[in-house]
Amino acid sequence: MKFYDRGFISIYKNYTQVQVLSAGTVVLNLEMYDDRICKDTFACQTYKSFNKEFLSSKYEDKFIKKLFEENKKNTLFRDKENNILIKIVKE
Fold first, then answer.
1. Residue 83 covered by a domain
2. In this predicted structure, what is the pLDDT of residue 20?
3. Is the residue at 73 inside a domain?
4. Phi and psi at residue 50, in whole multiples of 5°?
5. Staple 88 to which of 9, 32, 75, 84, CB 3.0 to 4.6 Å?
6. How many helices, marked H, and strands, marked E, lie in the chain?
């Protein structure tokens, strides 16, 4: 997955939602629950299988959820070994 656009991070009581928009159209919609992650283009899956498919199987299960829920203005995660860059800038 490669996205270089703007989006929204919404943290609700039961899940965290990440939406990435390009030209006003949602190009990525993730809903992250405690036990699963759901993307609008596939059925929900475990964090372990999501990591294996999109990130790295070496990452802890809820890595992506914790990253988006960090209470920082700027978050930068770089994994050169797996060619992964995640940059979150909150305005």
1. yes
2. 87
3. yes
4. -65, -45
5. 75
6. 2, 7
% of the chain exceeding 70 in pLDDT = 96
Residue 31 belongs to some domain of the structure: yes
Domain membership of residue 73 as a residue range: 6-89
Task: Indicate whether 71 belongs to any domain.
Answer: yes
pLDDT in tens, 48-81: 999 999 899 999 999 999 999 999 989 999 999 9
- Neighbouring CB atoms inside 10 A of 50's CB total 24
**Per the structure, how many domains does the chain have?**
1
Gap between the Cα atoms of 15 and 13, Å rounded: 6
**Whether the predicted pLDDT of 9 surpasses 80:** yes
Q: Are 54 and 41 in contact (CB under 8 A)?
A: no
Q: Which of 64, 69, 71, 70 is nearest to 86 (CA)?
A: 64
